[in-house]
Structures are given as C-alpha cells and as structure tokens.
Amino acid sequence: MRENGYNTTGSSGTGRIVLNRRPPQDGRERRRENTMALRTLRILGEDDLLRKKSKPVPAMTGRLRTLLKDMADTMYEAGGVGIAAPQVGVLKRMFLIDVGEGVKIFVNPEIVALEGSQTGSEGCLSVPGKHATVTRAEKVTVRAFDENMEPFTLEAEGFFARAIQHEYDHLDGILYVDKKEGPLLDNEADEEEEETDATDAD
Length: 202
Ligand SMILES: [Zn+2]
Hints:
Helix content is about 20%, strand content about 30%. It contains three helices and eight strands; from the N terminus they run αβββββββαβα. The longest helix is centred in the middle third of the chain and has 17 residues, at about 60-80.
C-alpha cells in the first residue's frame, strides 16, 4: 500500500544497488548479504495476475525468505508502506507492512475480527500516482504466521489496520479501486497544492 502523501526521504543519492543478476551457481541462487534486490511491481491494467487468488504457503523455504526480503526492498524503494506477494508476481498468501515501526511479515493471514470504521485516503504500488477514498474497519484482528512459520495473533487499529485490510485484499485479487468512494484522484494534483512544503517529494 502507498499512503497518499507518503514521501521517501534519503532514498536518492544513497548509491543503491539494483538487481543482483549473477548467474546461479551449483543450482542455487547465490547472493551476498545486504544486497538489495528489487522485483518488478505488477501494475493494474497491465497484469491479470493481480486479479487472481493467491495460494497458502505450505512451508517456509529459502526461496520464500528471499522473496520476502526482496518484497521489503521493493516496497521501500517505491515508497510504500505495504506490499503483497502477488504485486511482485507470486501468487502466495504473504504480505508485509511497515507503518514506521519496522517490517511486520504476515504469512497465510486470516482476518478474524473487524470492528468500527474509518474513511480515508488510500493508494497502492500497483496503481501508481493515484489515490482514492476508501472506508475500512477501524480495528482488525489478524491471525498469521511469521517468517519462521510461528503463529501469532495481532490486533491493529487506525492506519496499520487499514494497511492490513488493503494487503489482505491483494491475496484475493481485490484492489482498493474496487472499494473506492468517488473518483480515482491523481497524486500530482495534490502535490502541486502542497508545493510550499513539498521539500522531500520523490
Ligand atoms: Zn496495494
């Protein structure tokens, strides 16, 4: 998910490394620690995969751990606060979120309770440059597994709860544009209005 008006700071000019494309060795993809690897974000309207239902993760594997790390890199690079596996072309029930308190991984998530409601602006890395108003539950209780397949239950509210509901929808092929109230708006129109303090625009 991309929060409208969320700006990345310090992501430019940091000498980032893009895509480790060394050939596989001994049948395994070898990578250095701390190498940033970006996956291609799937864009709504260009890719039917975003509309498909993802499958449960039967077991954590090295390949899936790599995928989770790449998803985080891709999310941070794009200035997002959440990303789901289908957004990088993998139909697995996994997403991760960082609303400013570090990355939280959700594998095979189940939403077990929704409470209240909140109406606010929402964007998506798969719908670049756009946002719209969406009403979501104010509080959510989710059961999921972490990257070690340890189960946990988490209660979230506010923006974190919004992000969980947004990312969960991706696993069922649902995008926020299906739930929007009113028009899909252009981010640039807002940014021009806020030009006086838009010093960190990416
Ligand atoms: Zn999204």
